[in-house]
Amino acid sequence: MTEYIERDAALEKFARNSDARYVIQIIPAADVAPVVHARWRHVDVGVWKCTNCNQRRFTNTPRYCPWCGARMDLEEGK
């Protein structure tokens, strides 16, 4: 699993300790999740599907898929 660190926490630790290997090991990993990108694909009158999970949505197409959490920001054809 990929781990991320917070820049401000790293800079604060480096200001007090120059041993980079030790500093990086003691900085806690940031709580992040990968972003999945998708779009709503029109399949019928009032019916849309998420291009990531294929779940159907009727009329309302929010910015995120309520089933898989994908961000609906892909352009047509991608």
What this model shows, in words?
With 78 residues, the protein is α+β, with helices and mostly antiparallel strands. The chain folds into two domains: 1-32, no CATH class; 37-72. It has helices spanning 7-16, 20-26, and strands at 4-5, 29-30, 37-38, 40-44, 47-50, 56-58, 71-72. The strands form three sheets. A three-stranded antiparallel sheet has the order 4-5-6, with no helix packed on it. A two-stranded antiparallel sheet has the order 1-2. A hairpin with a 2-residue loop joins strand 4 (40-44) and strand 5.
Query: What's the helical proportion of residues?
Result: 10-25%
Query: Strand-and-helix sequence, N→C?
Result: EHHEEEEEE
User: Would you count the extended β strands for me?
Assistant: 7
- Number of H- or I-type helical stretches: 2
Question: In whole angstroms, how far apart are the ends?
Answer: 27 Å
What does the radius of gyration come to?
A: 20 Å
Structural class by sheet pairing and helices? alpha+beta
The major β-sheet equals: 3 strands, antiparallel
Overall form: rod-shaped
Question: Structurally, how many domains make up the residues?
Answer: 2
Walk across the major sheet and give the strand order: 4-5-6
